[in-house]
Amino acid sequence: MSDQADADEIRAKRLAKMNVVASSANASGSGGTAEADPTPPRPRPSVPKQAPSIQPKPVIRSDAMDVDQPVASSKPSPTVSAAQRQANQFLTMTSDRWEHQTVAFILQVDLDIIAAEAKGYAFLSSLVEDLVGEGITELQLSASLADRALHSRLSLPENAQPSATPLFDYLLSAWKRCGDAKRKIQQIQEKSSGLLAPAEGARMVALVTERCGVIDTVRGLIVSYAGFVILPDMADSFPQRQDILVQGPGYLAQKLSADAFESEDLFPQAFMDEFTKRFDGDGLSDIIGSLVNNIVGSMRFQNITTDYMAPIRAFSRLISSKTVCQIIVKLPNWCPENLNARTVEMLTILGPFFAKSSVFPDPEGKIAQAYFSSGNAFSDGLGETDNEGSPIGSRNLGDVRSAQSTLRGTILNVQSVLYNLIMTIVKTGPECREAVLHFLSTAISLNHPRGRMQVDRKTVATDGFLYNVNKLCLKLCDPFLDPMFSKVHLIEPTYFLRQSHRLTLPTGTTLLNADTETLDAEIREYAAKNPTLASPNFISDVFALTLGSHHFGLMSVVRYYGAVVKEISEMRKEMERMKAERDSGAWSRTPDGPIREMGYKRLLAQMDVFISHKLLLDTSLFDRAGVDHSLRFYNLVMVWLLRVIMIGSGSLASGSTTPDRVSWESLVRGNTQGLQIVPLPANVPASFATLPEWILEDLIEFYLFISRYKPIYFEGQPRDEFLTFSIALLKSTSYVKNPHLKSKLVEADFPADHVFFSRYPLYRTPRGDPTGPRLDLVFSTHPLSKQFLVSAMVKFYVEVENTGVSSAFYDKFNIRYNISQILKSVWDDHDHRAKVIAESKNTDQFVKFVNLLMNDTTYLLDESLTKLADIHKIQDEMANVEAWNATPQNTREERESSLRQYERMAQSYVALGNETVHMFQYLTAVEEIVTPFMAPYIVERLAAMLDFNLAALVGPRCTELKVKNPEKYGFDPKKLLSKIIDIFLNLSHRIEFVEAVSRDGRSYKKEIFQRAVEISTRFALKNAMEIQNLQDFVQKVEHTITNARESEEELGDAPDEFLDPLLATIMEDPVVLPTSGITIDRSTIITQLLSSPIDPFNRKPLTIDMVVPNTELKQRIEEWKRSVRTRPN
User: Which of 28, 105, 250, 763 is 20 to 30 A from 192, alpha carbon to alpha carbon?
Assistant: First the structure.
């Protein structure tokens, strides 16, 4: 049978239900009265054909017993109470009379035109004609006539008039009057208790029960007809207003969307319960489907500036019924097939509620305009800035803060409402819970393109939609986000090895330490070992979905936010450049001056739009409660990852029903309880290696995001979890394949803006005053940090030299900068300094560390000073305004572009260079650490590096380093000079260093040191004792040079075979390189291998233990030296 035929049959059945009483009127009459009366019917009275038009009437809540009540023949006794009088009236009133009055009152109808007009009721002329025609002589309403009376009332032509009360509202009012009538007789019964004789009391109970049943019967009819007048395929069976017919069940949405008190009056919950029970399986799905579509459709046109809560309230009222809830999740548009990343938020039932209630920039810019509009977008300059120094244009900072506070209150309310809405569905039953999980899984998984670095934002879901989804997932995680991690065992450690799970990952997803083939093999093996594996529990599903909602939702927004900030920064620089150019008068002397002015104003307006955009993003992203929520979740993620490793390696038994034997809260604070956490087990478990790499990357990036923009949010967050986790991985670097990811662990431990960590306290008093340790002191208090931090940092400093990626050369400087911040932070701690000293005894590792530190310092200082000289040159050119303005425009633009590039590079190189010099300064100040610096293959290059940079700072060309606003680049030549002199002084007592300086024929000059002494004295960079020590050092160097010159003259020219092939100096310890066969001095090849483990002559792999001592050549060199020195002059 076709769908149309099915629909027609259903419609016919419903019409039959409506007409069942009318079709049997001749048989039933009025409760059988016609059949009982043998007398012929009386002539039908004349009935007016025109009934008064039906106008909206107030609900009449009069006492049904008082309507047409006969007057008593005598006055009641004054001793009889009002309650007893009412009871007596109730008992003496006939059932026919009571039914007539009650039905008339409830339906607001009458069969007598005079009585109807007097009471404002509808006169049912058609029903009167029918009854008279059937021979009914007693025209009065009764329970048996209620159906026909109601049908007649609903069939009045006046119902279609524009001013008529909608039929559904009429029926709802009638339903309420049923309640009034029932309460009235129940009150009479209650008040008469104890006042009536036993027989009368028993009769009262029976009569109340009987009459309440009559009211319930009428009430049931009313509920049935309420469905008929609203059902899409039945509503046109009665005359109705056209606007109501068009809306159909959507008309109910208006009632459901009112506020709590008004909504209960417009559409009482009890009526809704009766309505759903009556039509369950009999058209309720059609009503609910149409109603839901109306509500969802309305939500699609909302945003945070409109009445967005109205559709949400309506939907919340709907799902308060379990029956309705079960119907909704089965509707075809709950989560239809063939969705894509963009349409999932518009074509699903839940999508618009999450998409349109967010505080994120919308395409039309309405939200930003409503809350962050600028009074003057074209004002010169950047105007106000917020507390972090970000521009806010001409907006008032107080107004911005007030708007953000208001919106954050809205965010909190929206998230709470959405969570309660979802939990109502989830708690309805397993089927509804599965439907919610399916929706979340679909919404998150379809948006996997948002995980890319470059996203076409028009093809994916909006930020607001996934942000709200993320916050919902976080709230679903709350039951297992306790700080003790007591429920982490409920999250499956092998969840991602299942053949199917909630988070569908795109093909080619990068894994932590495995490839796709390995993952497929592990999934097959896991399935083979667990053939009867049960479905994952709700907690595991929610945990995975929360990971996904962070990756495809929150972290995608974070990346976008970084792009917005960068764009504003670039626009700001361009604006400053254009303003400076305009103010110099250059535009007034060129024909295109007005065009440039227009371009400048366009830039100002565009920047103002971006600022409002950013302020809106700030509102959501930096909501303190939201940030704390994600931090707590990522703390759990880190503990879960450690647990995955422990279970995968066999160190911990897997259990999902009983808690683990270890206290994870104690473990993250340094008590490993016998588990091998640092270092981790040698073999990487498959359950960890095959995890998506973005899990770890997101975790780190979120920490970095907060560190960069809101480090104050770490107050109250000791970060023990992150420190334990990062130290574990940095001491076991084989666990993570991506070197860039490992480097971010260091950066997140102590980000570039480390000054905040040393400025902010861990806690504050209720008054807001700092108390307790600073944030950075966690490094000095955490047990694992005190034991392993230094060795982990030294080890990683060496490892990042060769990461295998194309950007490794430049990446390593940023990584090492962060390492230097951590080491500097802990240097004053006695325990950590002792660890540095102990690490220096590990000669091979620490020598590599020192060598790379020296390489970095040499390169960074050289680049810093070179870029400063380039800046100086261009600034000099621009200082000559007349000549500069006469320069062709394209040349000026090229030079200005070069200047900006040099400035960016100088800022980076100077900052990095300063830190490496500072590390040299404090490391060489400790005698126990100095020894590795004195290795022959280190000290020569160290001396040359220091001499070169000292000459650059105080030599003849030092004037080339004078730039405008040197603090802009972090360049403080006096401070840098002081640190370099400190290094000279720290090593001045070592003969190896004195000799190395004396051999530096390229950069060492006595005059340079004398100039350094003069500057240090003039600017009080050093005290008198330090000045004297420096002068004494120079004298020792000069004496060594004299002795060396005499020795060289004594030896004369050495045979070529005795000379080092790279340095052309006489070899002291010649060795043969096995891969190339070349003989070279051991110190020279060690120096080469420290930077790169290859043979410099053929680029083949080489390590120092592979070289072969050339003892025969060494003996010949020593014999030659003795023979030369003993040769007579």
Answer: 105
* Backbone angles phi and psi of 1070, in degrees to 5: -70, 140
Q: CA 298, CA 356: separation in Å to the nearest integer?
A: 11
Percent helix, strand, coil in the chain, to 5, is: 65, 5, 30
Q: Distance between CA atoms of 885 and 898, rounded to whole angstroms?
A: 17
Secondary structure of residue 385 in the 3-state scheme:
strand
Give dist(CA 448, CA 1104) in Å, integer. Answer: 48
Radius of gyration of the chain (CA): 44
Tokens 């390169």 correspond to what residue?
859
d(CA 545, CA 550): 9
Look at residues 706, 612, 712, 709 and name the one whose alpha carbon lies nearest to residue 399.
Answer: 612
The pairing of strands 761-764 and 770-774 is antiparallel
Count other C-beta atoms under 10 Å from residue 128's C-beta.
Answer: 21
Best CA proximity match to 744, nearest among 731, 726, 759, 761 = 726
Q: Per DSSP, what are the bridge partners of residue 1094?
A: 1101
Quote the CA–CA distance of 345 and 360 in Å, as a whole number: 15
Each residue's pLDDT tens digit, 357-410: 999 988 888 898 889 887 666 565 556 777 777 888 888 888 999 999 999 999
pTM of structure:
0.82
Specify whether the CB–CB gap between 731 and 791 falls below 8 A: yes
Among residues 194, 196, 313, 318, the alpha carbon closest in space to that of 260 is found at: 313
Phi and psi at residue 692, to the nearest 5°: -60, 135
What angle is formed at CA 801 by the lines to CA 798 and CA 804, rounded to 5 degrees?
130
Q: Beta partners for 770?
A: 764
φ/ψ region of 485 (left if φ > 0, alpha if ψ in -120 to 50, else beta) reads: left
* 530-558 pLDDT per residue, tens: 988 889 999 999 999 999 999 999 999 99
Query: How far apart (Å, rounded) are the C-alpha atoms in residues 889 and 887?
Result: 6
**Measured distance CA(860)–CA(809) in Å, rounded:** 12
- In three-state secondary structure terms, 1103 is coil
